[in-house]
Design goal:
This protein has helices at residues 138-150, 194-203, 223-233, 251-257, 260-275, 308-326, 333-355, 360-363, 374-379, 392-396, 412-423, 427-436, 441-444, 459-479, and strands at 2-6, 13-17, 26-32, 36-47, 50-59, 64-74, 107-109, 124-132, 170-175, 181-186, 207-215, 242-249, 282-287, 292-297, 306-307, 404-405, 446-453. It is α/β, with parallel strands linked by helices. The longest helix is centred in the C-terminal third of the chain and has 23 residues, at 333-355.
């Protein structure tokens, strides 16, 4: 079956057939938990003495799902005449061709204010890798900044539509009022297992900078973005030093959840819920894959322990009922699930510390899932395992047993301690994390330019985030050799 789409660079109508090797240059197959089997297809065609490359995502029946990447290459390049040359010399379609059946690329054009000199009209700074764990707020932040700069709501946000997260690399082409261009590649937060992360990293060989998002309300997942960034850094060869920015998001929600009253309430609520669980207890949930309600019965392990995925669903159900009664601002369906999973990961981290340098996994093989890769497994799926109809071994490996958690460990004091130590992050934790990244300067060539502790919801939060991006763009320009560029040339000061 032919798949029709438009070139993101010249807007020519193109088609590809995944069954016909003559219609594409390469193809890669991926399995997605929510969308099934996907095919990543790279095509190339010639236009005006240029080669235009498009990387599209096609589903099993041949339907177009998304553009993953696009760039152009000149057939003949004279380096002396083009001292600054990027593979992507043109962003977005040259003309607009509406289609009811084809998703258009996400392009942000900021031509509302046009300076008369337009000194940097054709300057392309490069592609920026936007990284972070699933649900860290990176996608919403990019879209909110886009809306802010455009002066209108180009990307209306829907928690329900975005509950599955970013499934493929999504490029946002941005053009500042002064004419400077940059592409922000929103990388899937779920790309945390080695094979998936490796393929995404190799696709980012032409990145000019890295932005790592962390979540102030699911803090112990912060290493996901770092792992992804370290792998990507190995493939970046066009610049000597890689500008790295860290953004800790959801500080507005942190202020609510970190209040002593709310922490005490949630600690008591969860402790009571766990203690009230009985063997064979029926738990109802909504299967989002098959779009129907389902249920399971509680299964207990050694010493009345509870299995991770079942306990997760029970706590999510409890927190959702409590949220409907109290209505905490910003505590969305996604954030409820991330909050619960972060709490359970915190308890797993405690078990992992206890097991270090011991033979416990050899004695009790059911504990072999408590390892350093557990954080990647827990970040691979969302919403919950039951809601995505996913078994434990599907995302953590056939040899890994589902970890049992002792119910007696979930007392009010322990839960409160895990919330404060592992789940919630204040500004001091953000700064300590930022300082720790300087260790990657020598081996990975990271130039950590700084970070911001903010949110994408309040006007002040968006202003702080935009200022951080401005500084990052400037650092990228310096890394690429644009010594004549000043911060004011970016043309973003009017929005700050």
């Amino acid at each position: 079956m032919k798949t029709n789409f438009y070139c993101e660079i010249c807007a020519d109508a193109l088609s590809v057939d995944k069954e016909d090797k003559k219609t594409y240059s390469s193809i890669r197959e991926e399995d997605n938990l929510l969308m099934g089997k996907l095919f990543i297809i790279r095509t190339v065609h010639e236009k005006d003495n240029e080669l235009h490359y498009n990387v599209v995502v096609v589903d099993e029946v041949g339907s177009y799902r998304a553009h993953q990447d696009s760039y152009s290459e000149e057939k003949k390049i004279v380096i002396q005449e083009r001292p600054v040359l990027s593979r992507a010399v043109k962003i977005g379609p040259a003309t607009s061709r509406p289609s009811a059946n084809i998703e258009r690329p996400k392009v942000i054009s900021l031509d509302q204010v046009t300076p008369s000199d337009r000194k940097f009209q054709s300057l392309f700074l490069g592609r920026i890798a936007i990284l972070g764990q699933g649900g860290s707020g990176k996608t919403r932040s990019i879209q909110q900044i886009a809306n802010e700069l455009a002066g209108k709501e180009m990307y209306p946000w829907s928690e329900e539509k975005n509950i599955a997260g970013t499934l493929t690399v999504t490029p946002y082409a941005l053009k500042t009022p002064s004419g400077i261009q940059v592409v922000m590649n929103d990388n899937p937060g779920q790309s945390s297992l080695d094979l998936v992360r490796q393929s995404v990293a190799m696709a980012g060989a032409n990145y000019a900078g890295i932005v790592i998002f962390t979540d102030a309300t699911a803090w112990n997942f912060k290493e996901i973005g770092v792992q992804h960034a370290l792998l990507i850094s190995q493939y970046i060869t066009e610049i000597d030093n890689i500008p790295v920015l860290v953004i800790t998001s959801k500080t507005d929600l942190y202020k609510i959840l970190s209040s002593p009253k709310i922490i005490d309430h949630h600690s008591s609520l969860i402790a009571d819920t766990v203690q009230d669980i009985t063997p064979n207890q029926k738990v109802v949930y909504f299967d989002r894959v098959n779009n129907q309600p389902r249920s399971f019965n509680i299964k207990q392990g050694r010493q009345d322990s509870l299995y991770f995925t079942q306990l997760e669903q029970v706590l999510v159900n409890t927190m959702q009922v409590d949220h409907r009664e109290n209505d905490y601002p910003g505590f969305s369906q996604v954030n409820v699930r991330l909050y619960v999973r972060s709490l359970l990961l915190g308890f797993c981290d405690l078990v992992l510390q206890w097991m270090k340098d011991s033979r416990i996994p050899d004695i009790y093989p059911e504990l072999n899932a408590f390892d350093d890769n557990l954080i990647n497994a827990l970040n691979y799926y969302r919403p919950t395992a039951f809601e995505t109809n996913t078994t434990w071994r599907q995302f953590h490996g056939e040899e890994k047993n589902e970890p049992p958690l002792i119910s007696d460990a979930f007392d009010r004091t322990s839960i409160k301690g895990v919330f404060q130590e592992y789940v919630l992050a204040n500004k001091d934790k953000h700064q300590q994390f930022l300082d720790s990244l300087t260790q990657y300067h020598e081996e990975y060539r990271w130039n950590v330019i700084g970070g911001v502790y903010t949110n994408s919801v309040t006007p002040e939060g968006r202003k702080n985030m935009l200022h951080a991006f401005e500084q990052h763009f400037f650092a990228v320009a310096e890394a690429k050799g644009h010594k004549d560029l000043e911060v004011k040339d970016l043309g973003l000061d009017q929005f700050l």
